[in-house]
Amino acid sequence: MSALLQVDKVSKNFGGFAALTEVSFELAQGERFGIIGPNGSGKTTLMNCIGGALYGDGGSIRFNGADITRVPAWRRARLGIARSFQVPRPFASLTVLDNVNVAIEYAASHPHRAKQMRDLAAAILKRMHLAAKVGVPAGSLTQVELRKLELARALATQPRVLILDEVMAGLSAAEVDEMLEIIMDINTQGVTIIMIEHIMRAIMRFSSRVICLDAGTIVAEGVPETIVADESVRRIYLGA
Ligand code: ADP
Ligand code: MG
Fold first, then answer.
1. 1: number of CA atoms within 13 Å, CB side?
2. CB 43 less than 6 A from any atom of ligand 1
3. Which of 18, 58, 67, 221 could cross-link with 11 by S-S, CB 3.0 to 4.6 Å?
4. Whole-number Å distance between alpha carbons of 182 and 193
């Protein structure tokens, strides 16, 4: 049995600076995979290499058995890899609904019929608790609503793997709980999830497995209980 995603010795340099050095891990279908690590440790760069926004300088990435190391981002989206961006960037003047429709069109390998598209967009926005906001311009949403729209746009591509890069930063405890509930529900529907997060309570509750990056390498990997007790994680990340 092969893994859904296989990251094998991926490296990435910016000029002379090694942002990632031979990072390897595998993801099974349906996993909830957490990534922690201090600022600048390479988390976003790693996700850029998986999503195709960046190509690594070394190593390989396989998705669903196929080598995607040199496959462009738009094609990876169609294969089923979706990501949120650390800074949400919807089209502010478009309505919430149209923002989702644009995302549906972007990832569609064939044009959707109008009714199909309406049904899909409505179902996604309901799952994101945004049904009441469909006609509102995205520019007038609150921060937590923007995060939900960002999730909705990623889901509109009907992904098999969803990458969430700090989607809960700046939210209140109650908002974090609501987002967690939504993300858990997405996972239950069969979507494999990679979550980068600084909010330890959220990552520990969410993840079935966690890796910790430091200076571009994986320094710890395991179930949440193992990770919180790990010496190097405590020293590097928790400051203990
Ligand atoms: P994290 O998401 O863990 O905070 P990043 O992956 O964003 O870390 O960044 C890892 C390191 O690579 C940082 O030192 C950052 O400054 C550097 N870096 C990221 N992107 C670029 C880029 N496009 N050009 C040059 N350096 C970059
Ligand atoms: Mg980052």
1. 6
2. yes
3. 58
4. 12
